[in-house]
């Protein structure tokens, strides 16, 4: 189970990196053409990717901590 969560989080990180790159491209294109609408969209994409990345990091750390605690509380009897 923890391996699956880790794989999902790695894929999500790549998606968020791609989202941030698209945001930077849209922002640069908006600045180049002096289009306020594109500048706003690019900025929103960058902010969205940062916020979701921080939330994902917090969720990952909490999941890792809970998994560690669960494994520590598991008793194996023979």
Automatic annotation (TrEMBL):
Tagged with keyword Transmembrane helix: yes
Transmembrane segments: 12-32, 38-60
The organism's place on the tree of life at top rank: Bacteria
Keyword field: Membrane, Transmembrane, Transmembrane helix
Key word Membrane present: yes
Protein name per the record: Uncharacterized protein
């Amino acid at each position: 189970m923890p391996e699956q969560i880790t794989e999902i989080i790695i894929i999500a990180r790549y998606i968020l990196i791609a989202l941030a790159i698209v945001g930077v491209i849209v922002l640069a294109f908006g600045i180049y053409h002096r289009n306020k609408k594109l500048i706003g969209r690019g900025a929103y994409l960058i902010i969205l990717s940062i916020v979701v990345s921080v939330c994902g990091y917090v969720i990952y750390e909490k999941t890792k901590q809970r998994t560690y605690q669960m494994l520590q509380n598991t008793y194996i009897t023979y």
